[in-house]
Amino acid sequence: KRLQDQSPTAFEIACQNKQENVTRYLLENASILKLNLATCFRQTYINGNIFVAEFIINNASFDFNKVLQGACFEKEGGMEIIHLLIGKMDIEKIDANAILKIACHRDLWKVKRLLMENSSLTSKINFNEKDENGQSAFHIVCKNGNTGFAEFLIEKSKEFEIDLNAQDNQGMTGFHLACKKSQTLPDQSRRLRILG
Fold it and tell me: With helix as H, strand as E and coil as C, how does the chain read?
């Protein structure tokens, strides 16, 4: 358990130091020690400890979708652990649209790479699905100034059948929103106009 001063747990220290024997012992006794395996997995992912990640994936029973989404959201960590997770999951049960939403709000290279490398995952995504404001993924990335992911969606627009000229409830396209955002990010609208 964490102390009130937020000092690291024994598991966090073992993960940070890549102490496989200590980590294995703690995981094997997770129920007695009341370790939250989803939290342990997050720490494992951040520290890139593949051995421990594989042990948790093979022995834990928790919502892998939430764990996968969390792994995609983290700035640290690598693709190898995400691939381990996906390999253990039924591809039909992966919430690919939730992963896309994460990517829309943050410019994460690993989510772009995940989408490029897993055609069975990308085939499940409706890139033109709109939210309550009538905005698609492209609208959202442009509105948020997420230029890297906007460029990715433009490049993949034909392959993913993305309607780049779709209008939201206010009659705005993603390009309009990029131009509005350009007041704070001047390069964004220029780059997107060139690409579009």
Answer: CCCCCCCCCHHHHHHHCCCHHHHHHHHHCHHHHCCCHHHHHHHHHHHCCHHHHHHHHHHCCCCHHHHHHHHHHCCCCCHHHHHHHHHHCCHHHCCHHHHHHHHHHCCCHHHHHHHHHCHHHHCCCCCCCCCCCCCCHHHHHHHCCCHHHHHHHHHCHHHHCCCCCCCCCCCCCHHHHHHHHCCCCHHHHHHHHHHC
